[in-house]
Amino acid sequence: MGRTMLVASPGGHLDELRIMVDLLHLDTSDLFWVTGRTPQTESLLEGMAVEWIPRVGSGEIRKAALGLPAALRLHRRVRPDLLVSTGALFSSPHLVAATLLGCTTWFIDSATRVKAPSRTGAFAARFTRAELFVQGAGWGDPRWTCVPSVFDAFEVGPTDDPVGLGDLHTATVSLGTELWPFRRAVDAVLGRLGDLDLDLTWQTGVTEVVHHGALLPQWQPASQLHRAFGASDVVITHAGVGSVLSVLAQGRVPLILPRVSSHEEMIDDHQVEFAEMIAELGLAVVVDPDDLTADHVVRAANLRARRVPPAE
Length: 312
Known about the structure:
Elements: E1 4-8, H1 12-23, E2 31-35, H2 39-44, E3 50-52, H3 61-65, H4 68-78, E4 82-87, H5 92-100, E5 104-108, H6 119-127, E6 131-135, E7 144-147, E8 154-158, E9 170-174, H7 183-192, E10 199-203, E11 210-211, E12 214-215, H8 222-231, E13 234-237, H9 241-249, E14 255-256, H10 270-280, E15 285-286, H11 294-301, E16 303-307
Parallel strand pairs: 1-2, 1-4, 2-3, 4-5, 5-6, 6-7, 9-10, 9-13, 13-14, 14-15
Antiparallel strand pairs: 8-16, 11-12
Helix pairs in contact: 1-9, 4-5
């Protein structure tokens, strides 16, 4: 049994990789994780073998490239037999290091990539020897092998007892760990839903907002945030794959506010494409922050998610 190095940036990419370990039946006897340190990753990987390395944001290509010497040193020390990564740019120096050192490598692109590979996926295809995997039906490129999507494990139906606006008392707002601020989402919730008198639990991430003289909570440990998802009447989140997965896993159907590149909330519009796909699957209620209404909240609150039993 060999050692497997698992590389993913914090947030959705890490959540996908954790699920893929099971979906792809990876040997879990000797796993070594490589990710960035956040309250969420510390909670999720507690007690596991982990190398905490500096985070790389979307578009920080120079910072990623400068990480190659450290990646080579780490790979020579850990000596993995297999490297598996779900991205994002954070993982690129490790994909190169694995190629240079002859380590078998699997790159699994994110479920958010519906129409074409991510930039990291395109990089892996061109500059590394990684075996390439796409979740779901893929985009028709024979270089990419289709594997089950992490969202195949869920289905959605109505609540047993329908609820109206007056029945809603609690909500959680989680904007993920993305390094781009998302002020429109916070303003939409505070401005458009302010009259609902909801008890709000916040995780604004890097979006710093002072409300009623106090900074809204930016970070929660993963276990605490997941409990809040399950206890809330409705959960509002961005179109991050990890956030959506975590909400579904707690039995709630997310109300998704996608980030849009024209507002400088993301480097591209893959969140919009991903949100459209999730809505078509019936796994979420989706609306642009500027169009958010109480009706969207009620629609999401009247739906519940459950895990689909695995196929025999």
